[in-house]
Amino acid sequence: MNNTNELEGAEYCREVSCFFVPGQGTLSVTTNNYACSVEFDFFDIWEKLKKMEYDHVCMIHSHPPGCNVMSSTDSNMVYGWCQAIGKPILFIIAIPEGYTAYWCTRDKENKSKVNRCIVQLDCVDKFDELISTVYYLSMLNDHLSEEKTKQIVEIFNQVFNKANFIVRNEVEVEK
Question: Which of 15, 30, 78, 126 is deepest in the core (most CB within 10 A)?
């Protein structure tokens, strides 16, 4: 992840989430402006997802520095999303040192189970920039209102509409 000079010495302020559909764009950017809690806006995103075709989705989520793994809350949330949409989810946890990518899928034989595997990605530059920008929003001292996050979605769709990735390989399987 690229570190920008303007963030040097800045403190982590909030978790930020971004729901992105490759080939379709950013559907949502949310924060509740807390350093240890964030939600994805399920109902808003669900309404948008019902109107489009997609093979998989991407959820980018910032964490405080040094916390690069899924929390139990993250794991439970991804379980619910996988069950609801029935498609694979690339779940990214962004921290200043980089990111951890999980490929989350419903188990083919046991539909009530969701597999979460840490994966390596091949990304276009725009995808790496999208991840870095989500983390950057975590460091801003300004309060991020719902109005501001809607503006951010519009900007993301202008700048990052070509962001994409390829899952290269599994690194570790999480049981």
Answer: 15
Q: Whole-angstrom Cα distance, residue 138 to residue 115?
A: 28
Q: Answer yes or no: are the C-beta atoms of 27 and 43 closer than 8 Å.
A: no
Is 90 exceeded by the pLDDT of residue 175?
A: no
**Across 142-165, average pLDDT:** 87
Residues β-bridged to residue 170: 119
- Residue 28 pLDDT class (50, 70, 90 cuts): very high
Q: What is the C-alpha to C-alpha distance for residues 92 and 121, in angstroms, rounded to an integer?
A: 11
Residue 82 identity (one-letter amino acid) = C
Number of structural domains found in the chain = 1
Contact 95, 134 (CB under 8 A): no
* 28 touches 49 (CB < 8 A): no
Map tokens 């929390």 to a residue: 71
Range of the domain at 44: 5-174
Furthest CA-CA distance within the chain? 49
